[in-house]
Amino acid sequence: MSKISVYKQSAYPVSSKKIKEVVKKTLQEQGITSDYEVSVAIVGEQKINELAGGPGHPVLAYANSEIKEPFAFPQKEIIYLGDIIVSYQAALQESQRTAKLLDEAVAGLVEHATLHLVGIHHD
Predict the structure, then answer these.
(1) pLDDT at 98 over 80
(2) What is the DSSP letter of 118?
(3) Per-residue pLDDT for 97 more than 70?
(4) For residue 110, how far is the Cα from the chain centroid?
(5) Of the candidates 62, 74, 89, 115, which lies 20 to 30 Å from 53 by C-alpha distance?
(6) Among 30-34, 56-60, 96-100, 104-108, where is mean pLDDT lowest?
(7) CA-CA distance, 79 to 117, in Å (whole number)?
(8) Measured CA distances, 58 to 40, 43, 51, 112 (Å)
(9) d(CA 82, CA 84)
(10) pLDDT at residue 120 in the model
(11) Local structure of residue 87 (DSSP, 8 states)
(12) How many C-beta neighbours within 10 Å does residue 46 have?
């Protein structure tokens, strides 16, 4: 059984259900068929800056292992993929800038970070 945990540092009005749906859909699209665990945290600007070592990061992805390229997981094991940390303030700014709903802005950041967890990186 796969497990997606969502933690909110504060009472941020973000849908945990939507976050879980995005992680699940993104992993399915990448062919992940084994059971997995992923943790997602929605945090404030101060916390994400502390974790990132400075400002300018809307989302962080900490993979359980360093993955250089896409790969396949064993089908009968539960794999802990890692942690995703989203800056609530960055998502809010993105939603205002693009006229998207806040949940859609968060979903975009979560999708991006989920791809990083499975080894898909951008240049």
Answers:
(1) yes
(2) T
(3) yes
(4) 3
(5) 115
(6) 30-34
(7) 11
(8) 13, 10, 11, 11
(9) 7
(10) 86
(11) E
(12) 12
Q: Residue 80: which pLDDT band, with cuts at 50, 70 and 90?
A: confident
Fold that domain 3-85+100-117 belongs to in CATH = Collagenase (Catalytic Domain) (3.40.390)
Residue 34, token pair as written in the block: 């084994």
Tokens matching residue 55: 């400002």
Per DSSP, the residues of 6-73 read EEESS-----HHHHHHHHHHHHHHTT--S-EEEEEEEE-HHHHHHHHTSS--SEEEEESS---S----
- Distance between CA atoms of residues 105 and 28, nearest Å: 20
Q: What is the dihedral of CA 117, 119, 97, 45, to 10 degrees?
A: 40
Residue of 93, 4, 77 whose CA lies nearest to 40: 4
Residue identified by tokens 């809010």 is 92
Which residue type sits at 114?
A: T
Per-domain residue ranges for the chain? 3-85+100-117
pLDDT confidence bin for 69, thresholds 50/70/90: low
Joined together, the tokens standing for residue 92 give 């809010």
